Please model this.
Amino acid sequence: MASSTILVKTEKPTNALSFQYLQQIFEIDVDGKTTTCIAQTRKGKKCKNGISKASVSEARKVLESVTSAGDAKHLKDLSDRLLGLAELLVCKRYHQEKATPFAQAWKAAINPLSKKHKGSVHVTTASKTVVTSCTKKVTTPSDEFDSSKTCIRTFVPYDARAKSQIDTSDFVRGAIERNLTPREISTGYIYIYWFPGNFGHLKLGCTTRTVDIRLRDWERQCGHKTYLGFPVAKEDQQPIPHVYRVENILKAQLRNCRRKEIRCHVCGKCHQEWFEEGKQEVIDAVRRWSDWMRKDP
Model:
């Protein structure tokens, strides 16, 4: 899976992954100071459940085994070690299921050292389920994104009523049956994208221009590299009539997993079209309603 790159200067060329450096990009502390779970609650607050000193001590040994391996490219069992590290640092009571997302995010944050950029280490952002973070005090090429502006990204439920007694089908029916607005007459495309470190969250939107142009707009506006999840297959790249109506139907169907970003640290806006749902589930919904609208119901 491709990922955005940040160049972090080192004092001299090295193939070793610094112990302190990994702690920084993983946002952990296994030097005896970590006493609580590294996961977050559903409300986006840090879990307060304790982690035993024995687990922290073992986590340090695991992290040392990663750093002593040198170039991460040659560490065959990297995934297993990172999963073990995550399992040690999340509480056993509530957040063991969060270990895998942490491990995946950490693995994505470690790229093989580049031969082209000697004296630099390539890293991407680290992830904390609903919070996306990146390394501070970094230097980036002039033609790349200013990643120092994309530190903490926090998501909260979009609609407090989402888990109320109101049935989702009623919202979908309302989105289908109400009169078309002038804007909803337009033809266009539905797109889905994500960006590294932002694991578990997908951005859904629509555009009357090409999807490529719209994604470049997002990259310039919000300072992160976008990775397209939909449309990819040729059959999904056909224009959709009344595309904004289709988007509204999708928002109604996916309302229970809709999230909003508190405040984008680059553009300052509150982005409200994020969804905490599996990619295939969202793609299936987009295909279903797009095909339905193309049949001119």
The beta strands are 6-9, 120-123, 126-128, 131-133, 153-157, 189-194, 202-207, 227-230, 258-261, 274-275.
